Amino acid sequence: MLETELTRALHIRYPIIQAPMAGGPTTADLVAAVSNAGGLGSLGAGYLTPEQIRLAIQEIRARTDRPFAVNLFVPEQPTESEAAIAEMTAYLNVYREALGIPSNPLIPSFSESFEEQVRVLLEERIPVLSFTFGIPPQEVIQAMKDQGSFVIGTATTVDEAIRLEAAGVDAVVAQGSEAGGHRGTFLKDASGSLIGAMALVPQMADHVSLPVIASGGIMDGRGLVASLALGAAAVQMGTAFLACTESGAHPAYKQKILSENEDATEITRAYSGKAARGIRTDFMRDMQQYSGTIPDYPIQNAMTRDIRQAAAKANRPEYMSLWAGQGLRLASSRSAAAIIRQTVDQANALAQRLTGLGTSGHLK
Ligand SMILES: Cc1cc2nc3c(=O)[nH]c(=O)nc-3n(C[C@H](O)[C@H](O)[C@H](O)COP(=O)(O)O)c2cc1C
User: Fold this and answer.
1) Domain regions of the chain by residue span
2) Would you state the pLDDT for residue 78?
3) Which of 91, 210, 276, 352 has minimal Cβ neighbours within 10 Å of its Cβ?
4) C-alpha–C-alpha distance, residues 331 and 219, integer Å
């Protein structure tokens, strides 16, 4: 009942993709558990070095022989003035003092080399590549496809999906404004590209011939059936897996995910310089008062890294980035397999009920 063109193309049992979540949550255990349970596990590899990526892929392969995805960030070339960087460095020193870490840390590079990351994915012949923050160079998409990888892009508007289709991807994630984590917006301003999944998915499905993967606030079988009804061929769920047994999220972060509500999140550039949805923190609130310019991603991301890491070590969630979507109340601490099982059972029961409604005339 839950078979779609994507389950067939990806050789997976259920149209459920566990979202890639860079920064620790998507451990090899989580990715493999989701794939073993019939979904598609995804490794968030955007912040990993090429060697860390290779190791993680080997760990995943040691745990499952099912398909899995690896996700990368399409690189950006920010230009920020030295003055803005110096002003932010001075501002952030207040947090460093509060956390007892050195002021003015040296930042050797702002991000990992995309080319080197891609080289490992080609060498490892991964089954699925997904990416966000734009469109990779044509030769990268082609090389991945030539070696047999299925390629998935991320869009927050119909125009972005059309551009991804023209670039040759095999499927596109429709990232609704409910979604946790960074916005994948790459054509216009992020604040003008906040479209809820209920509006985004059917419009995208109407305007591209690629399979559309619904994402943002989808937490259970209700979200899955609703997404399929809107024209999606699968769902990508992040927050639903953030607090599960196999997630590598920090314990204080998991605790927040399990105790906060749908109104606890907002979109901020405070941590990384790129719009992202997370649970409101003191750091986000303070940064709203900042009178200077917040440097663009990935500069700000690199500049706050030591603070976020020290905050995690000191168990101080008020300074950590707590990315989360709006479906918070539906999050669960059970195993990934249990979450998938319940989602599938609920979706099947719901689909049957809706079919019954149709045949009994209620929907006529
Ligand atoms: C903690 C966290 C980290 C994320 N990291 C990534 C990432 O590395 N790459 C990516 O394409 N999307 C990332 N996302 C966005 C997800 O792909 C997806 O759009 C989002 O989780 C869907 O919304 P939901 O969290 O409400 O399910 C992240 C989301 C979260 C919550």
Assistant:
1) 1-75+111-249+334-364, 80-110+250-329
2) 85
3) 352
4) 7
